[in-house]
Amino acid sequence: MSEQTMIANLEKNTGKSLDEWIKIVKATGLEKHGEMMKFLKTEHEFTHGFANLVVHKARKSDAGSAGEEDLVDGQYKGKEHFRPIYDGLIKEISAFGNDVEIAPKKAYVSLRRKKQFGLIQPSTKSRLDIGINLKGEKPAGKLEASGSFNSMVSHRVRVESETDVDKKVIGWLKKAYDAAG
Known about the structure:
Layout: H1 3-14, H2 18-27, H3 33-44, H4 48-59, H5 68-75, H6 83-94, E1 101-104, E2 109-112, E3 116-124, E4 127-132, E5 144-145, E6 155-159, H7 167-179
Antiparallel strand pairs: 1-2, 2-3, 3-4, 4-6, 5-6
Helix pairs in contact: 2-4, 3-4
């Protein structure tokens, strides 16, 4: 069910708007997601889906509540040393064309044209991963098969320092961008 439909149905079913429910949940003083969920389910007979919607909105923990920059900042919390690499990649990728869509999610940034051609994800404190869709390209050197990393891309490049992002990596991203048009 789309979020807008759920929000409309929440008010229709309960007589209270999403904003009113957010105030009710915040007034409890509860802070943990599970505690808030339990409160809405037991005290107000919410279904799991409606409780989850209200709790995420109250805690601003869903992708729709956070601004794009907030999502990216959250990804690099504790991994700030990778932020200049990310910013450099975005600058290079944005120059591919005016139809590049940079779409931050909670854990990664999706790179899209008409379809997704790559992603950037700070996976650990010591590694940033670049996922690239290069169907038919044989893995070689630092261009490895994505394996269990992410099913939305065919390949991965592991980045531990700025020197790992070279002309080859940008070339692979450009090739994926071209194929996504």
